[in-house]
Design goal:
The complex is a heterodimer of chains A (about 450) and B (about 450). Chain A is of the alpha/beta class and about 450 residues long. Helices cover about 50% and strands about 15% of the residues of chain A. The chains are: A alpha/beta (about 450), B alpha+beta (about 450). The interface between A and B is large, with 43 and 41 residues.
């Protein structure tokens, strides 16, 4: 689902981008400086979540690859949001594609457990040279490398209406108390502080994850993700109480509580980006501007600040990302996987916008505009990097409309005082999902 | 090939080639003609049906995990699935009856209007729209905010005429001394006597909804024997100091402030000037309280949560009946037009009222047609899916769920449990079979 928003972000950013020409010429020179080889040939079938503009941009990456390996044909099939279903069925039927990119690490884990994926240890050297160990770890399952997070998104961004902030006289806050105080001032100025897209449960889990990573720290975050820590833990209680400071007061949300529960994500963005706005702030990832369907200019109408620090937490980001995996192992596939780990592959897409990478060797000047550069490089700069929790959990708990975590956080939005009841339900739902193993 | 070539009497020019006799040849021809249909049915209907039934006895991980009837037990013990079954019962109880009734009323009425073709076309139009598009359209119409949702916009037009919204529907008190809420009105708790100054600061007012003429607020000087005061927007960029009239903060002209005595009886009122000042004039000794009545804060009607968990199923039923009423009308109208008119005339000649004609003659004669509509609707309603998944937002889908949607969500929507999903499919199949059997039997009787 999220990838669709990044897609639209790509559309907008590609239009906004002024540095595209400069950046792509950098990328092109990086590629042409290497020698093309015809020693490897073959074809690769590749099923992906990227559609539309994103698929087009990935074709650009394939084009860059073909300059080096002209005899390898990569057939990319844009499957879209139904990819998990399509891949699960294909694996069950015994005819998976050669490669795929998957937005849910939980699904990668399932495929590893079923033995459907081939390890890509041959690319480990290239990974370690270009990515930090934390990123290599994101693709490591059972102590073998199976995946490469090729495209990432920063989910620790907060977007605000510049006019609302000016009218209320508040500045982008950096700490949680400042954030809460700004909300009070915004409300007094006559605008609801928060726009919550509660009809899409994942916006609520994203908010919780950002709070939890900062408040409980990365160790507990990892433990809760793996369900080694129970949802009834005191750290979850504390995080939910912090979350209630945002979603707990009906008057603080555009449309009140009942309106927030029915607001879908695109509407929650428009609430903030339109003029006059219905709310001042929307808490979601770097793909937010691409979702807006109202006219708004960056910096003059809307802007972004990093998710505030809680109790002195260091710079932290929750990321989402698409992992490249291989179902087969051929020289052509090896060549393509190795290529995707290079800065040239990342630059081929980054220059077009709507893309962030953990590739440290890619120059940040490749990103097409200042906002993208800021949100994208924050990923590399952050001390705590955590993958979206709900994406890593069994899908029945972390990624099902109206059920598991999504459904229960919607219950929490409806009744934010019932912290312990929600925790109990989360725990029993998680226990069932983890017992079934996905 | 002419139509005669497949009848019992084959053309003589072909017959001699069938050396083994006309019986076998006819048998072979029959088989040949049936074969494509049989192959397609086997591949697309028979095989999946058998596979699904077998699959329903195995667990999540596949055919290596036999679980017996556990999946069927889950069907009646998992709360999301029991809700789906319960909802489907409501659908079956409501929709066929309503669709048939509405269709019948429309059909009978269109017989009597001169623009019947135009009317029929309009009522039938929803059938021409895909259920997916209908779901999206109704979802937009059902949005709670009356500025966006058409249904609530009509409601607001009516409700706000009866209860007009106040001038300051968003206001909040700025200091703890001012208590109450927009619903009850606000009262300044500081006791006032002759010579006091009442400070009524309000926040939460968007600049766009400030009353016309609002000017820099002024705190009036105390006047002996009188109670004066100011009601103003106690906010400037950055917040300012609550309860203090500061530069940049404006008065709220037009707001009527009431002065209440110790018995809480309104003794005087004063409307604020452009700079927010109020003056109650000379007052008798004693303590008073100043307050702003609830009417000032009355909010415009907020609309019903049609898409919320409580109303989602009725909302879906309305949209569904809207789609299918046209179908029922057309089928029933066809039945009506083929009805013997002389029977109706005879009844009228015998002195029956129009209502009696309708009840005792029209409806019984239409019974076969009505039952076709009714049974078709039962089958349609049992497998309803597309409207629910498109109309109900994610946060209401548990409350709105029906059997077919539960089957899809359990199999593909993230849970990915083909075992329980198959069990739901088998359950749905079992529910549909008796209705189908009824239909087939009736069909045969009609042919005979």
């Amino acid at each position: 689902m999220r990838s669709r928003w990044t897609l639209r972000a790509g559309v907008v950013m590609a239009v906004v981008a002024l540095g595209v020409l400069v950046a792509s010429s950098i990328a092109a020179s990086a590629i042409s400086s290497r020698q093309a080889t015809t020693a490897v040939s073959g074809s690769i079938t590749f099923d992906g979540v990227w559609t539309g503009n994103e698929a087009k941009n990935f074709q650009g990456v394939i084009g860059a690859f073909n300059k080096l390996y002209p005899k390898v044909k990569v057939n990319y099939k844009p499957v879209g949001d139904n990819l998990p279903t399509v891949l699960s069925t294909a694996v069950a039927g015994g005819h998976p594609p050669d490669m795929a990119d998957i937005a849910q690490p939980g699904l990668v884990k399932q495929f590893v457990a079923k033995g459907a994926l081939k390890p890509i240890t041959y690319a480990r050297k290239a990974f370690l040279a270009n990515f930090s160990p934390a990123w290599v770890q994101l693709g490591t399952f059972n102590s073998k490398v199976y995946g490469l997070v090729f495209k990432a998104s920063n989910k620790s961004t907060v977007w605000y209406n510049v006019h609302s902030f000016a009218a209320a006289g508040v500045k982008p806050p950096t700490t949680w108390p400042e954030f809460a105080k700004a909300a009070g001032t915004l409300r007094a100025s006559g605008v609801a502080p928060y726009s919550i897209g509660g009809a899409d449960g994942w916006t609520l889990t994203d908010l919780f994850e950002n709070i939890y990573l900062r408040q409980a720290g990365p160790t507990k975050y990892a433990a809760l993700t793996a369900h080694k820590l129970k949802w009834t833990d005191a750290s979850v209680t504390a995080a939910l109480k912090t979350m209630a400071q945002v979603v707990g007061t009906s008057a603080n949300m555009a449309g009140g509580t009942s309106g927030a529960v029915q607001t879908d994500f695109p509407t929650s963005v428009n609430n903030v980006f339109q003029n006059p706005p219905k709310a001042a702030v929307v808490l979601e990832g770097d793909f937010v501007p691409g979702v807006a369907t109202v006219k708004a200019k960056p910096s003059t109408d809307y802007n972004e600040f990093a998710f505030p620090s809680i109790a002195g937490s260091p710079p932290s980001v929750v990321i989402g990302g698409d992992t490249i995996v291989a179902f087969k192992d051929t020289p052509a596939i090896q060549a393509f996987v190795n290529f995707l780990a290079t800065p040239a592959a990342a630059a081929a897409w980054a220059a077009k916008g709507g893309f962030a990478t953990g590739n440290r060797k890619m120059a940040s000047t490749v990103y097409p505009d200042a906002t993208t550069r800021k949100t994208a490089t924050a990923i590399a700069k952050a001390k705590y990097v955590a993958f979206d929790m709900s994406d890593q959990q069994p899908a029945s708990f972390g990624a099902t409309v109206g059920q598991g975590e999504w459904g229960l956080f919607q219950d929490f939005l409806r009744n934010p005082t019932n912290v312990s009841g929600i925790q109990k339900n989360l725990e029993s739902s998680a226990a069932t999902a983890y017992k079934k193993g996905g | 090939m002419t139509a005669g070539s497949v009848t019992a009497e084959p053309p003589t020019g072909v017959a001699p080639q069938a050396a083994s006799g006309p019986g076998l040849r006819r048998y072979l021809t029959g088989t040949l003609f049936l074969l494509p249909a049989f192959v397609l049915l086997s591949v697309w209907i028979l095989y999946p049906t058998v596979y699904t039934i077998v699959r329903s006895f195995y667990g999540r991980s596949g055919f290596d995990e036999f679980v017996g009837i556990d999946n069927f037990k889950a069907l009646f013990t998992t709360s999301t699935l029991t809700t789906a079954i319960k909802n489907n019962l409501i659908w079956v109880a409501v929709v066929p009856a309503f669709v048939t009734a509405v269709g019948l009323i429309f059909a009978v009425l269109t017989e009597r209007v001169s623009w019947s073709v135009a009317f029929k076309t309009v009522v039938f139009l929803p059938m021409a729209i895909s259920a997916f598009a209908t779901g999206v359209t109704w979802r937009i119409m059902y949005v709670q905010d009356p500025n966006l949702g058409a249904v609530n916009a009509v409601g607001r037009a009516v409700v706000d005429t009866v209860n007009p919204p106040g001038v300051l529907s968003d206001a909040l008190p700025s200091t703890p001394q001012l208590t109450g809420s927009a619903q009850q009105g606000m009262v300044l708790q500081t006791p006032l006597r002759a010579g006091s100054v009442a400070l009524i600061g309000l926040t939460g007012i968007p600049p766009a909804s400030l009353p016309a003429g609002a000017a820099q607020a002024v705190q009036p000087a105390a006047k002996p024997g009188r109670i004066v005061g100011v009601v103003w927007r106690d906010f400037k960029p950055g917040g300012g100091v609550p309860g203090k009239v500061e530069p940049g903060e404006v008065g709220l002209p037009g707001v009527t402030v009431q002065l209440r005595d110790s018995q809480n009886k309104v003794v005087k009122t004063s409307a604020a000037q452009d700079d927010g000042t109020i003056d109650f004039g000379v007052v008798a000794p004693g303590t008073y309280h100043a307050g702003v009545s609830a009417g000032t804060f009355a909010k415009p009607w907020g609309g019903y949560a049609w898409l919320g968990t409580k109303l989602i199923t009725p909302s879906l039923l309305i949209a569904y009946i809207w789609i299918w009423a046209g179908f029922a009308m057309v089928v029933i109208a066809a039945g009506l037009s083929s009805m013997p008119r002389d029977v109706l005339e005879a009844a009228r000649t015998d002195g029956a009222t129009e209502w009696q004609v309708f009840r005792r003659v029209t409806v019984p004669l239409l019974a076969p047609v009505l039952s076709v509509v009714f049974i078709t609707m039962i089958i349609n309603v049992l497998k309803v899916f597309d409207l629910v998944i498109t109309l109900a937002p994610g946060s209401s889908q548990n409350a709105a769920s029906v059997i077919a949607l539960a089957m899809w969500r359990t199999s593909f929507g993230g849970v990915n449990d083909f075992g329980v999903g198959s069990a739901i499919a088998v359950f749905l199949f079992v529910l549909v079979v008796p209705v189908l059997a009824l239909n087939v039997r009736r069909f045969r009787r009609e042919v005979a």
